[in-house]
Amino acid sequence: MKYHGGGKLDKKYISLVLVLLAFSALVYAYTINRTIEVQTCEDSDNGLNFLVEGNITGLDLNDTYYEKNDYCIDNLTIMEYGCYERDNSTFAVEVYENCTAINTTSCSIGKCI
Q1: Do strands 111-112 and 55-59 pair parallel, antiparallel, or not at all (unpaired)?
Q2: Secondary structure of 81-104 as H, E, C letters
Q3: pLDDT averaged over the chain?
Q4: pLDDT score at 82
Q5: Handedness of CA 21, 25, 27, 33 (dihedral sign)
Q6: DSSP letter assigned to residue 113
Q7: 48-103 pLDDT, tens per residue?
Q8: Could you count the other beta carbons within 10 Å of the beta carbon of residue 56?
Q9: Residue 98: its pLDDT value, please?
Q10: Does the pTM exceed 0.85?
Q11: Is 11 helix (H, G, I), strand (E, B) or coil?
């Protein structure tokens, strides 16, 4: 195997990879979205409201009733549910959020406080 370069390119490449990995970890730590198409969706806290405990209810595409309650994954992270419509379709969305990212200190009983 032939060696190419004097180390500077290698160090730049490694630095770039480390920066990209760190950025990916930050994005992953704060928000992960999952969207599911459903027939109907109602949200008790009127959208992605991280400060109010709520739930979504409705019918999925198989006519099965569902209910998803906002909850704390741990003392800093909330699982928030919401609904939205786009192009004549209805969607249920799941969002994981770090409560400190929205200027609160922790998660308790399904809401950031």
Answers
A1: unpaired
A2: EEEEEECCEEEEEEEEEEHHHHCC
A3: 83
A4: 95
A5: positive
A6: -
A7: 999 999 999 999 999 999 999 999 999 999 999 999 999 999 999 999 999 999 99
A8: 23
A9: 94
A10: no
A11: helix
The SS3 of residue 66 is strand
Cβ contact 58:66 at 8 Å: yes
Environment class of residue 92 by beta-carbon count within 10 Å: exposed (0-12), middle (13-18) or buried (19+)? buried
Please tell me the distance from the alpha carbon of residue 50 to that of residue 96, in angstroms, as a whole number. Answer: 10
Q: What is the mean pLDDT of residues 33-41?
A: 94
Tokens of 24: 């990916």
32 CB contacts (<8 Å, ≥6 apart)? 95, 96
Report the candidate in 51, 50, 52, 55 with the shortest Cα–Cα distance to residue 92.
55
> CB atoms < 10 A from the CB of 35, how many?
13
Residue spans of beta strands (DSSP E) within 39-76: 42-43, 55-59, 65-69, 71-72
